[in-house]
């Protein structure tokens, strides 16, 4: 046991040293070079993906299932970090996850190897729980800021200004996180990107249905014409009604969500209390890891079923 802990400690120290050296190298030498190459690559992508008729079809195919499938391949992790408002690289994220998992495993292994494996898995999962919570909170904040943004664009267009000027006003006057998103869209257009492609990328960066409806409506209006002011006013009213419906749904399902939270947390709290106050009694359960695994799987299936009951699309 002591030899194993010493080996993990040495590995942990070496990993920290390598991470520190690579961080210093990146910050001092490679940061700006990579930033320039990334910006040039973004602006020089193919422009043949601007068909607004297929936007909803493509976005529906890139939902939560593909997000989870691409997460461990690294293809969707940058998108998740961007949607959560976390300015980290994929490398820094995986190093943080590895360090947390290693520290959690060492703390659990101090008492038992099997407990160390369990705490290591929990330590690896906690950053992703935090990531998805941040993403959901940021998306909700974006949704609540959209009606005011639509009204601002409508007033700007009504007064004779262009949509690009309205984007600049949003980037300067509106609060975060809507300010950063529209500021990037405005910057891309100023650097030469087509307006249609810039709006498309604005929608692709965020999993906010109201924002995607705005982009599709704007692209269709840009091609077929129409009253943009009336369109924006209708969109503002529609988004406001959707937000009210969302709040009503949350109020009606609050009891079910609280029951789900209690049912999920209670077994872990009870197990921790038993281990703390009666470790001899808990050893009978800890000596049967298969039973613990089956219990964890059952908890996960129950959580998914409860989530399907209290969460639905509208």
From TrEMBL:
PANTHER family: INTEGRAL MEMBRANE PROTEIN-RELATED, PILUS ASSEMBLY PROTEIN. It comes from Rhodopirellula islandica. Keywords: Cell membrane, Membrane, Transmembrane, Transmembrane helix. It is a multi-pass membrane protein. It comes from the Bacteria. It is found in: Cell membrane. Pfam families: T2SSF. Its main location: membrane. The keyword Transmembrane helix applies. This is Flp pilus assembly protein TadB. The keyword Isomerase does not apply. The chain crosses the membrane at residues 6-26, 93-111, 117-133, 260-279. Residues 151-275 form the Type II secretion system protein GspF domain. InterPro entries: T2SS_GspF_dom (IPR018076), T2SS_GspF_sf (IPR042094). GO terms for cellular component: plasma membrane.
């Amino acid at each position: 046991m002591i030899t194993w802990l010493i080996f993990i400690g040495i590995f942990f120290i070496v990993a920290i040293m390598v991470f520190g050296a690579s961080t210093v190298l990146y910050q001092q030498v490679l940061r700006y070079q990579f930033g320039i190459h990334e910006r040039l690559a973004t602006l020089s992508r193919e422009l043949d993906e601007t068909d607004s008729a297929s936007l909803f079809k493509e976005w529906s195919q890139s939902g939560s299932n593909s997000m989870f499938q691409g997460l461990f391949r690294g293809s969707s992790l940058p998108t998740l970090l961007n949607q959560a408002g976390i300015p980290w690289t994929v490398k820094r994220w995986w190093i943080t996850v590895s360090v947390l998992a290693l520290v959690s495993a060492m703390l659990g292994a101090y008492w038992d190897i099997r407990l160390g494996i369990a705490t290591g898995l929990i330590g690896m999962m906690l950053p992703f729980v935090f990531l998805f919570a941040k993403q959901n909170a940021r998306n909700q904040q974006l949704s609540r800021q959209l009606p005011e943004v639509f009204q601002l664009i409508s007033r700007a267009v009504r007064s004779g200004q262009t949509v690009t000027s309205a984007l600049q006003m949003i980037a300067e006057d509106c609060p975060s996180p809507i300010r950063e998103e529209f500021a990037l869209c405005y910057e891309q257009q100023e650097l030469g990107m087509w307006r249609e492609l810039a709006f498309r990328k604005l929608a692709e960066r965020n999993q906010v249905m109201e924002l995607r409806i705005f982009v599709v409506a704007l692209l269709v209006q840009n091609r077929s014409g129409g009253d943009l002011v009336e369109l924006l006013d209708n969109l503002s009213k529609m988004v406001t009604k959707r937000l009210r419906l969302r709040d009503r749904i949350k109020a009606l399902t609050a009891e079910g969500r609280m029951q789900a939270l209690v049912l999920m947390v209670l077994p872990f709290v009870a197990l921790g209390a038993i281990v703390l106050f009666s470790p001899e009694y808990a050893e009978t359960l800890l000596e049967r890891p298969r039973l613990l695994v089956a219990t964890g799987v059952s908890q996960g299936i129950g959580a998914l079923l409860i989530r399907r009951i209290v969460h639905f699309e509208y």
